[in-house]
Design goal:
The protein has 375 residues and is of the alpha/beta class. The chain has two domains: 55 residues, DNA polymerase, domain 1 (Orthogonal Bundle), CATH 1.10.150.530; 285 residues, Aldolase class I (TIM Barrel), CATH 3.20.20.70. It is 41% helix and 17% strand. Helix 6 links the parallel strand 8 and strand 9. The chain is elongated and about 70 Å long. The relative contact order is 0.11. Bound molecules: S-adenosyl-L-homocysteine and iron/sulfur cluster.
Length: 375
C-alpha cells in the first residue's frame, strides 16, 4: 500500500525530491499544491513535469481516507466517519467555536489503554495511524468547507479523538510538524492541544521536542486509588511519576497544563475529591488549568452516570475557593453520537449486523440448494 504524501514534513519532501533527482523548489511547489491549493491528485499540479508527476504517483497517494458518513448536529458540530485503505474505520469531529473551526483527530484504530469509561477503549488497538492518515483528517475537513465555497479555515486542532497519541508518538509528532508548518496549513502551535492519559516518559520527551504545542492530561481523579480503579494506566504511571514528569514539562517549557476531569457521579465528583485535587495542584496553581467535563454516557459502561449539575457546581466552588483555575466544559453535538468512538462503534455494529444477515442469506441459499443436489 502506498503511503500518503501528507505524512512527509516539508524537510522530508525536499529530501525525497533531491534523492529523486529533482530540484528543491520542485518540492516547494508540491507542498504549495498540497496545502495551499489543496488539490486531490498529482495530475492537478500543472507546473510539474510529467515524469515527476509519474514518480509521485508511483510512490504516494494524496488522500488515504474515504468519507463514509457525515453527521451534523444542530450546533454545527460535525462528525466524519472515514474508511482507511485497509477498510478500518476512524472518526474525526469538527467543532464550531467562537474563535474558529476546531478539529478533533483520531490517532489510532482502537486504544490499548482501556479506561473504564471510554468508548474508544472498547476495541483493542488494531494499529497506529500513520502521520499521513492523521494529517488527512484535517485536510478532509478543510476541503469539506472549500468545496462548499465557505471561506473558513481550520484554525484549531485537538488531539483528543480515538487513541492514545503518546502511544503513537513519532507519527503524532510528524503530524504536528506538518500542520504547524508556516508554509502549509500554518495552524499555530498555541492553537493545538495534545491530550494524554498520562504516559509520563513521553511527557518528558514532549517537554523538549521544540514544538510549542499545548499539553492536556486526562487526570479524572485526585488520588491513586480512584485513578487506578478507572484508568489502568495509573498502575504503570501512578500520580507521583506522572506529576514528576509534569513538573519537568513545566520547568522546561513554562507553559500551562490543562487537566481534564470527567465528572462521574459518586466516583470522583464529591467535595472531598475537589479538596484533594486542589491540594494536588497546590504548587502549580498559575500553570494548572482544570477542565470539568460532563460524562458522555457509553452504553457498554452503564456503571457510570453523569454528575448532577449541582455536584459539578459544588466541585467547581471548592476548586475556586482554593485558587485553582477551572472551567466547566461546554458540550458539543449532544444530538449526534457525541463521545469519541461512539459513531464508529455504532457503524461497526451496523456492519456486523449486515454481515450476519448476509451470512444468513448464504445459509438459507445453501439450505435451499443442498436438498436439491442430494435429490
Ligand atoms: N487518549 C487520550 C486522548 C483521547 S481521549 C486521553 O485519554 O487523554 C480524549 C478525552 O476524552 C480524554 O480526556 C478522555 O478521558 C475523555 N473521554 C473518554 N471517554 C469519555 C466519555 N465517555 N465522556 C467524556 N469524556 C470522555
Ligand atoms: Fe484510550 Fe484516551 Fe479512551 Fe483512555 S480515554 S481508553 S487513553 S482514548
Amino acid at each position: 500500500m502506498k503511503p500518503s504524501i501528507y505524512g512527509l514534513t516539508r524537510e522530508d519532501l525536499i529530501n525525497w525530491a533531491l534523492e529523486n533527482g529533482e530540484k528543491k523548489f520542485r518540492a516547494t511547489q508540491v507542498w504549495e499544491w498540497l496545502y495551499q491549493k489543496r488539490v486531490r491528485s498529482f495530475e492537478e499540479m500543472t507546473n510539474l513535469s510529467k515524469a515527476f508527476i509519474e514518480k509521485l504517483n508511483e510512490n504516494f497517494v494524496i488522500n488515504p481516507l474515504k468519507q463514509l458518513v457525515v453527521q451534523e448536529a444542530s450546533d454545527g458540530t460535525t462528525k466524519y466517519l472515514f474508511e482507511l485503505p485497509d477498510k478500518m474505520m476512524i472518526e474525526t469531529v469538527l467543532m464550531r467555536q467562537q474563535y474558529g473551526l476546531s478539529v478533533c483527530v483520531t490517532t489510532q484504530v482502537g486504544c490499548n489503554i482501556g479506561c473504564t469509561f471510554c468508548a474508544s477503549g472498547l476495541l483493542k488497538k488494531q494499529r497506529d495511524l500513520t502521520a499521513g492518515e492523521i494529517v488527512a483528517q484535517i485536510m478532509e475537513v478543510q476541503r469539506y468547507f472549500d468545496e462548499r465555497g465557505e471561506d473558513e479555515r481550520v484554525s484549531h486542532v485537538v488531539v483528543m479523538g480515538i487513541g492514545e497519541p503518546f502511544d503513537n508518538y513519532d507519527n503524532v509528532m510528524n503530524f504536528l510538524r506538518v500542520i504547524n508548518d508556516d508554509k502549509g496549513m500554518a495552524i499555530g502551535a498555541r492553537h493545538i492541544t495534545v491530550s494524554t492519559s498520562g504516559l509520563a516518559n513521553r511527557i518528558r520527551d514532549f517537554a523538549t521536542n521544540g514544538l510549542q504545542v499545548n499539553l492536556a492530561v486526562s487526570l479524572h481523579a485526585p488520588n491513586n486509588e480512584v485513578r487506578s480503579s478507572i484508568m489502568r494506566i495509573n498502575r504503570s504511571w501512578p500520580l507521583e511519576k506522572l506529576f514528576d514528569a509534569i513538573d519537568y514539562y513545566v520547568e522546561q517549557t513554562n507553559r500551562r497544563v490543562t487537566f481534564e476531569y470527567i465528572m462521574l457521579s459518586g466516583v470522583n465528583d464529591q467535595p472531598h475529591h475537589a479538596q484533594e485535587l486542589a491540594n494536588l495542584l497546590r504548587d502549580k496553581k498559575k500553570l494548572a488549568y482544570v477542565n470539568l467535563i460532563p460524562y458522555n454516557p457509553v452504553t457498554e459502561h452503564d456503571q457510570y452516570s453523569r454528575s448532577p449539575m449541582e455536584d459539578v457546581l459544588k466541585f467547581y466552588d471548592v476548586l475556586k475557593k482554593n485558587g485553582v483555575n477551572c472551567v466547566i466544559r461546554k458540550e458539543h453535538g449532544t444530538d449526534i453520537d457525541a463521545a469519541c468512538g461512539q459513531l464508529r462503534s455504532k457503524q461497526m455494529k451496523k456492519q456486523h449486523a449486515m454481515e450476519k444477515s448476509a451470512n444468513a442469506e448464504v445459509l438459507s441459499f445453501e439450505e435451499k440448494i443442498k436438498p436439491q443436489l442430494k435429490g
